[in-house]
Amino acid sequence: MRLKNKVAVITGGGSGIGRATCLKFTKEGAKVVVADFNETAGKETIEMLKEIGGEAVFKSVDVTDYKQVEDMVNFTVETYGRIDTIFNNAGIALGKPLLELDPEAYEKVVKVNQDGVYYGISFAGRKMRELGIHGTIINSSSVFGFLANANTFSYNASKGAVRLMTQTAALELAPYGIRVVGVAPGVVNTPIYDPVKALGRESEYTHKQMTKRFTPPSDIANVVAFLASDEAYAINGSTILVDDGYASYK
Asked: What pLDDT does 31 receive?
């Protein structure tokens, strides 16, 4: 078990990549704090973890509220005595042409995808430094943080920002033995794409992936678990593409 006795906080743990990562971390021996704004979904994840013998607790959080993120980190330490990993995974998407994008909609995406990551890095980093823990902070970017994509201006902007936030935080936190890394999924089989499936438009999104399918969330979770492990000690400041070749598409 690569993560035995480690304590991890996973935001957006109620569904998709977050839930898959909670399951993977549990199987690897970690104690997990499932953090999500959706209490019903989060507690469903908790039940799944307990069914496989995991130790986990739920914490309600709105990642756009810095005080709630601080409380989440403090809750983790109060519950388990430490925090080894945080996966800043919570995110939302919005498809709308740039010239039709209003400031409120733009800011909503940025607050979740970018500000939420900043709060997670900041408060987890402070707590790890305070406790002398050589932990790992993992941030969720996207292949669309590497590539331009029409009609997703706010999403692209936020995910591109996460890449540089990861690099900058890695530089600043390295002296404390804290690694900061990122993961950049391609098109993943999560609830974000449910409307696409309902319209039978899957191929419009999967045709640039080499297997021509949605990537299972568990594939992303496998990489996140590796990044959280001691085996990845030499990976720092990097954002790893897990995009089924999307970025290589010609």
From this structure: 99
